[in-house]
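Technical note accompanying the year-one report. For the benefit of new consortium partners, we illustrate the data format agreed upon in the data management plan: each record pairs a sequence with a structure-token string. No post-processing was applied to the example shown here.
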Amino acid sequence: MMNKILKSISFVFHPLIMPLLGVIFYFSKSPRFIPQEIIQAKLVSLSILTIILPILLYFLLKTLGKVKSIYMPTAQERILPLALNCIVVIVILQRILTPNQIVELYYFFLGILISSMTCLMLAVFKFKASIHMMGISGLFMFFIALSIHFSININGTLALMSIITGAIATSRLHVNAHTYLELILGLFVGMLPQLLLVNYWL
């Protein structure tokens, strides 16, 4: 039973959904007036590029024999998907979230790009950082920065994020997907770019 719960946590909080969760949270908490049409257009575009397109690319790579599982258990399997992910994020930064539109989301995705490129370089050197931990820690840091930026009290959300982060780390260990070192590395790879980029928009 516990094994099924922990596997479900890894699936529900898959890294693919983290960027979109950050965008949804931003639009729900931002005190700025943003036309509803723009919000809907951004959400639809980002849903296609961050969730639907990666899923389609995964099935293509699986068909071609480049990956065996959506969790990409080996460093070698991660290289091509991470490279494609970097390209997708670059397209988002150039076409959807330019710095002169929504600066907070621009730097959020710039942090995602830096984290993804770091994971890619690590994979090239045959070392895998936890992409799950990278995703949740980057999102967690973005939430903290937004709470300071907008002076809003989201202590309940941050407490929930702490629990989710711990649950994800536990689930990845329980299913033997990562070592402690890979989880810690993933945590810092996701968190540090968001923390460093805060200086440009906070």
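Partners are asked to follow this layout when depositing records. The CA atoms of residues 58 and 70 lie 7 Å apart.
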